[in-house]
Write a structure and sequence with these properties.
Immunoglobulin-like; 10 strands; single chain; four-stranded antiparallel sheet; mainly beta; six-stranded mixed sheet
Length: 126
């Protein structure tokens, strides 16, 4: 099965300033199976701490959320939260990225047999 992407990426109204910022990951249109949120804290110009959490809210095999941090050259690293055990279960992931502070984007996804089959809209945080 080929992963499907949602239509239009969305932008956050939150600027990329220092401090802790909370976010809600956009829902996957047409599927009420995952809710996701998190936060990020910029620490100076070289570090950002990112937490992303996903909760399975409906019946499907796997759900999750991913935060992708980019450096000025466009290289990326990510942190994810994946739920494999069924509705009502949640998971979180936290990491501090060094030198990956140019952009931060998040999205949720649905998985089936270990493969991503659908992704939600991408939220650009900064």
């Amino acid at each position: 099965m080929t992963p499907t992407k949602s239509a239009t990426p969305t932008k956050s109204a939150t600027p990329g300033a220092s401090g802790t910022h909370k976010f809600t990951v956009p829902a996957i249109p047409g599927d009420n199976v995952v809710s996701a949120s998190g936060s990020y804290t910029k620490m100076g110009t070289a570090r950002v701490k990112v937490t992303v959490c996903a909760k399975q809210t409906g019946g499907t095999q796997q759900v999750g959320a991913v935060a992708v941090a980019y450096n000025a050259s466009g290289a990326s690293k990510n942190v994810g939260a994946v739920v494999l055990t069924g509705p009502g279960t949640s998971s979180c992931g936290t990491i501090t990225f060094l030198f990956y502070t140019a952009h931060l984007k998040v999205h949720s996804f649905i998985g089936n047999q270990g493969k991503v089959v659908k992704t939600g809209p991408i939220l650009t945080l900064y």
